[in-house]
Structures are given as structure tokens and as C-alpha cells.
């Protein structure tokens, strides 16, 4: 299950200047989408914002974080893991209030998730832990030695198998984590593209409605222009003077104004057609992002399968090692019995020789 967006808002993103720790440095040239994401597998919440091709905010929310309103439209929070302070400038005070309330809800949910995970860890069987138990920590510091002087002696085992299997598992988990991070960044980018796509679709519908209205107005203006031209032609044919010349000037001026208005409407139609082509480009980018996200999902499934295989191999190896240890202990006990019998035989021989 991938991370899912649960809340989004638009704001200008800032980061604190690491040199002065006082001034703000803009992280985005314009307002960008800032989203809360929830990871159901890890029970973790993150704030993610993508500007262009890079993530300008990637902050995991912890119970210790606090979102502070420093003005009517500006708020900030500190991220100790990222070693920075993020600032958000909103367009309205209501947007800031909504973001602040959602931050408090997510912070409380993160606290409950942490407490629940700690309770589960306390109930887990220690035998399932990959790390060595506490009573073997001292033995793992010494080289492997076998002692058969008595049934109370211990068998020291090598830690090379544990180190190899643990390192392999950590390597695969790291690969899976990197794939998940890349997938989350692409998903945030896709979410932003979907938001932009919805706005472009609404603008395109409105533009199409305006184009239809302007076309009707254009047809009416053209009819009016033709009528005025006919009137001008009639006046020129009669060759009247005086008031007719004034009427001709007024009609000519009205005709020029209508032609200027027609040119302005044509320019607006051309701009709307250009926006329509931009919408098609955005649709193509969204399809490409979906395709990349599907590829990452396939890669993620493959990595999960490899992790499962490694865990199965690790469990099988641990079982084999336990069986080997049991067999060695049984052999040690048999050797102890044999040594004890040989010791009795030696003492019997000594007594026999003394007699």
C-alpha cells in the first residue's frame, strides 16, 4: 500500500537561512501544493511539496513538532531530522487556520501510532529478533572455542552467519526504501499534476463557453459592420453634403471601433486556443507520470518479493543453525560421558597395577 494524500493546500514555501538562523530563503518562486501524506504500512505521516522536479519539503511529522502561527497568513515548524525550519505563506487566513488544525490532528495521530507500535514491540517474541540475545553478547566478543570438560561448559558460536544475513537483509530493505521514496516523490508530482489538470479543465470549459458567446457577438458585430458599410455606401452614392458628411464621419468612426473590437476578440480566441494546446501538453505529462509510477510500483513489488525470499532464507538458515547446535550439544554430552568412562577405566587400571 502506497502513501496516500489526505490534505492539500497551496502556499509559498520558505526555509530558514542556515547561516544567520534569522532570515527566510524562498524555496519556491510561486505558490506550490503542500500535501499531508499517510503511510499505512509504517503508520507515518509526512508533509511533501514538489517544486519543478525536486522535493522542496519532505518532513516526517513527529509528536514533538509544533506548528506556530507567526502572523495572520504565515506559519512555521522546525524539523530536527532535516536540520531546518520550514515556513509557509498562505493567501488567506482561513487557509492558514485549516493547515494548522490539520497539523495538530496529524501530530496527535502520529503520537497514537508511536504508542501503539511500542506496545506491539513489547509483545513480540524476542526469538524473532535478528540481533543476538543479551546472554550471548559476551560470547560473541570472543573467538569460537569448543570446550568439553563437563556438562556445564558452554559452546561459543560464530557470528559470521548472522552478520552476512543481516547485512543482506539491510541492503534489500535499503533498496526497497529508496524505491519507496522515489515512488512517493512521483506520487506527489502526480497529485500536483492532477490538481493542475482539474483547474485547466475548468478553465478550458469556461473558455469554450466564452468562445461560443464571443462568436455570437462577433457575428452580430459583423452584421452591424455590414449594415454600416451599406449605409456609408448609400451616402457616398447620393453625394450629400452638410449633415450627411457628419453622419458619414460618425459611421466611419463606429466602423473603425467595431473593427478594433473584432481584432481584440480574435486575439482573445487565439490566446484561448494556445491555452488549449498547453492543456494537451499537461495531459501528456500526466500520462507520462502515471506510466513512471506504474513502473515504480512493479519495481516495488519485485523488491518486496526479494525481501520476502531473503526473510524465508534467513528463517531457514536459523533453523538449520539451531538443529546444528542441538546436534553439537548432543555430541558434546556423548563425549563427556565417554571421557568420564575413560577416566574410570584409567583409575581402574592404576589400581590394578598397584596391586
Write up this protein:
It comes from Astyanax mexicanus. With about 350 residues, the protein is of the alpha+beta class. It contains 3 helices and 8 strands, in the order ββββββββααα. Strands 1, 2, 3, 4, 5, 6, 7 and 8 form an 8-stranded antiparallel sheet that branches. A hairpin with a 2-residue loop joins β4 (about 45-50) and β5 (about 55-60). α2 (about 160-240) packs antiparallel against α3.
Largest sheet: 8 strands, antiparallel
Task: Compute the number of helices.
Answer: 3
Q: What's the overall average pLDDT, rounded?
A: 77
CATH fold title of one domain: PH-domain like
Query: Per DSSP, what share of the residues sits in E-state strands of 2 or more residues?
Result: 5-15%
**Uncertain runs:** 127-161
Please tell me the CATH architecture of one domain by its name.
Answer: Roll
Order of helices and strands: EEEEEEEEHHH
Structural class by secondary-structure content: alpha+beta
The CATH class of one domain:
Mainly Beta
Shape: elongated
CATH superfamily of one domain: Pleckstrin-homology domain (PH domain)/Phosphotyrosine-binding domain (PTB)
> How far is the first residue's CA from the last residue's CA?
85 Å
Helix fraction, binned, reads 55-70%
Task: Give a short overview.
The protein is of the alpha+beta class and 355 residues long. It has helices at 93-123, 160-238, 243-354, and strands at 4-16, 24-26, 32-39, 44-51, 54-60, 68-69, 74-79, 84-89.
Using brief descriptors, characterize the structure shown.
355 residues, alpha+beta, PH-domain like, eight-stranded antiparallel beta sheet, 3 helices, 8 strands, elongated, PH-like_dom_sf, G protein-coupled glutamate receptor binding, coiled coil
Amino acid at each position: 500500500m502506497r502513501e496516500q494524500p489526505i490534505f492539500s493546500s497551496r502556499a509559498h514555501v520558505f526555509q530558514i537561512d542556515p547561516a544567520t538562523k534569522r532570515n527566510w530563503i524562498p524555496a519556491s518562486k510561486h505558490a506550490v501544493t503542500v500535501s499531508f501524506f499517510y503511510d499505512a504500512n509504517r503508520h507515518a505521516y509526512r508533509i511533501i511539496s514538489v517544486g519543478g522536479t525536486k522535493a522542496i519539503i519532505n518532513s516526517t511529522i513527529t509528536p514533538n513538532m509544533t506548528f506556530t502561527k507567526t502572523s495572520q497568513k504565515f506559519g512555521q515548524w522546525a524539523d530536527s531530522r532535516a536540520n531546518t525550519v520550514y515556513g509557509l505563506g498562505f493567501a488567506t487566513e482561513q487557509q492558514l487556520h485549516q493547515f494548522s488544525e490539520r497539523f495538530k490532528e496529524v501530530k496527535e495521530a502520529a503520537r497514537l501510532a508511536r504508542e501503539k507500535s511500542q506496545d506491539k514491540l513489547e509483545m513480540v517474541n524476542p526469538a524473532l529478533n535478528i540481533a543476538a540475545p543479551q546472554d550471548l553478547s559476551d560470547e560473541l566478543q570472543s573467538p569460537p572455542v569448543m570446550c568439553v570438560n563437563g556438562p556445564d561448559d558452554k559452546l561459543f558460536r560464530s557470528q559470521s552467519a548472522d552478520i552476512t544475513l543481516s547485512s543482506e537483509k539491510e541492503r534489500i530493505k535499503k533498496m526497497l526504501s529508496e524505491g519507496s521514496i522515489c515512488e512517493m516523490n512521483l506520487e506527489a508530482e502526480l497529485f500536483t499534476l492532477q490538481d493542475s489538470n482539474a483547474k485547466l479543465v475548468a478553465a478550458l470549459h469556461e473558455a469554450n463557453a466564452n468562445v461560443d458567446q464571443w462568436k455570437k457577438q462577433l457575428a452580430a458585430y459583423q452584421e452591424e459592420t455590414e449594415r454600416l458599410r451599406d449605409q456609408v455606401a448609400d451616402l457616398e452614392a447620393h453625394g450629400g453634403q452638410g449633415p450627411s458628411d457628419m453622419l458619414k464621419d460618425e459611421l466611419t468612426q463606429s466602423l473603425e471601433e467595431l473593427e478594433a473590437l473584432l481584432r481584440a476578440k480574435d486575439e482573445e480566441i487565439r490566446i484561448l486556443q494556445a491555452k488549449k494546446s498547453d492543456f494537451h501538453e499537461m495531459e501528456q505529462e500526466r500520462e507520462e507520470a502515471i506510466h513512471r509510477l506504474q513502473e515504480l510500483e512493479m519495481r516495488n513489488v519485485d523488491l518486496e518479493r526479494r525481501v520476502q525470499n531473503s526473510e524465508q532464507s534467513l528463517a531457514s538458515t536459523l533453523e538449520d543453525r539451531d538443529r546444528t547446535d542441538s546436534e553439537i550439544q548432543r555430541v558434546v554430552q556423548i563425549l563427556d560421558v565417554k571421557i568420564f568412562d575413560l577416566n574410570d577405566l584409567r583409575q581402574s587400571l592404576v589400581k590394578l597395577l598397584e596391586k
